[in-house]
Write a structure and sequence with these properties.
By secondary structure, the chain is α+β, with helices and mostly antiparallel strands. It folds into four domains: about 1-90; about 90-195 and about 370-420, Umud Fragment, subunit A, CATH 2.10.109.10; about 220-280, Alpha-Beta Plaits, CATH 3.30.70; about 315-360, no CATH class. The protein is about 25% helix and about 25% strand. The protein contains eight helices and 21 strands. The chain starts with a helix and ends with a strand.
């Protein structure tokens, strides 16, 4: 009993600092439980046990030493909080916000997310010297928030799952040309459509993985041509209720271009005034010079794309004049072969001719749910495994900056929603 009396006495002596620490720690545990419990029971239990053991050791053994001044106590508490938060941010959970509409209507601009580093395994920092809580740029100052004095090779700690088809994933933007280290590139969030070993294609906007139509996200959004019978438009309030966006009127005969969720299409088909509703898609063979791999002899576009095989580590792929352009960027930039080139139909690395290449990394194909307003793998190619940050697990806050009514700015119905 004396042991527990002493422990309680130590806690009470800490006064405000101790109770702030306890409160923050247990709020964190609550968030971790929300994030991990639907996937694994062992993980949250382990986190709770380990954290409480650390808490016990910190208060009973460290603070049993001589009493410090109030100033020193606060300095220690702040230092401990920064170190603990940095470790948690790097190994378990990190907060992100949605800045663009590329994932609408699954994720909205103003959604605040927690992203799990633990699902796929935490990535050891490749640029370990950096300012706490800053990504690549210092707030206000606009200067670099990191130093490249020490660089570590890519290594990922074990996770409890791998990336699955249709997971919502945060990753470092691979096509960034700012010269930043991999882990300091901009963070993007998309849906992983194809994983290593898959073959992906798009036919008139429908994704096919390994020859089978992919199940679209219910709130996936595309551009549709809607024609009304009487030439009239739609009530803006009603469009807002059903989450449809009017883009433009195509004529004065009742032709409209609209952003509509797949799950809302039947609503329009059931309207008495709607004559037709059809997705607007680019035709097969219509070349777009901003679509990867940017070659006229490979005339792909946003709606008709592929087929493209997504390499997995260990795959040996024969290189031809055609598929060379599909894998050039991956082999040269992500696999570390800057001397890669093709001359007279032959492929060379370090001036030695090669007829095939064995990939060292796993690759992923990412797409936004807002299919016609998303810069994704269709535009800049595959994402290598060293660029993967983590899995988006749930929305903890959602703020509508465009809402004029201050009481409606918080999207209450989205708080603590799991991300699917």
């Amino acid at each position: 009993m004396n042991f527990f009396k002493n422990f309680f006495a130590i806690l009470t002596k800490r006064e405000k600092t101790g109770f702030w620490f306890l409160t923050a720690l247990n709020v964190l545990l609550f968030l971790l439980l929300i994030a991990f419990t639907p996937v694994s029971f062992v993980t949250p239990v382990t986190l709770v046990v380990l954290t409480q053991v650390i808490l016990f050791a910190y208060y009973y053994f460290i603070n049993k030493l001589e009493r410090k001044s109030k100033t020193r106590e606060w300095i220690d508490a702040i230092a401990f909080a920064v170190v603990a938060a940095t470790l948690i941010r790097g190994l378990f959970l990190e907060a992100y916000t949605i800045p663009t509409p590329s994932m609408e209507k699954s994720l909205l601009v103003g959604d605040f997310l927690f992203v799990s580093k633990y699902h796929y395994g935490p990535r050891v920092p490749m640029t370990p010297i950096s300012f706490p809580f800053a990504h690549h740029t210092m707030p206000v100052l606009g200067t670099k928030a990191y130093s490249e004095a020490i660089k570590l090779p890519y290594y990922r700690l074990p996770g409890f799952t791998t990336i699955k088809n249709n997971d919502v994933v945060v990753f470092n933007y691979p096509a960034e040309n700012e010269g930043r280290p991999v882990d300091k590139k901009e963070n993007y969030i998309k849906r992983c459509i194809a994983i290593p070993g898959d073959s992906i294609s798009l036919v008139d906007g429908q994704v096919f993985v390994n020859g089978k139509a992919n199940e679209n996200a219910p709130r996936m959004q595309m551009i549709y041509h809607v024609k009304t019978k009487d030439g009239n438009g739609f009530d803006p309030k009603y469009l807002k209720e059903i989450d449809a966006n009017m883009l433009q009127s195509l004529s004065n005969q009742g032709d409209f271009q609209m952003q509509i969720k797949e799950e809302t299409v039947p609503v329009f088909k059931g309207m008495e005034n709607v004559q037709t509703i059809e997705p607007i898609v680019q035709t097969r063979g219509e070349f777009m010079d901003f679509i990867y791999p940017f070659r006229k002899e490979i005339p792909w576009n946003v709606d008709n794309y592929g087929p493209l095989y997504i390499p997995k580590a260990g795959d040996n792929i024969p290189l031809t004049q055609m598929n060379y352009w599909l894998y050039e960027k991956a082999i040269r930039d992500y696999e570390g072969n800057p001397t890669l080139k093709m001359e007279n139909g032959k492929v060379y690395i370090n001036d030695k001719e090669i007829t095939s290449y064995t990939f060292q990394r796993n690759y992923y194909f990412m797409m936004g749910d807002n299919r016609h307003f998303s810069a994704d793998s269709r535009f800049w190619g595959m994402v290598p495994d060293d660029h993967i940050v983590g899995k988006a697990v749930f929305i903890w806050m959602s703020w509508d900056a465009n809402e004029s009514n201050v009481f409606k700015k918080v999207r209450w119905n989205r708080l603590f929603n799991l991300i699917h």
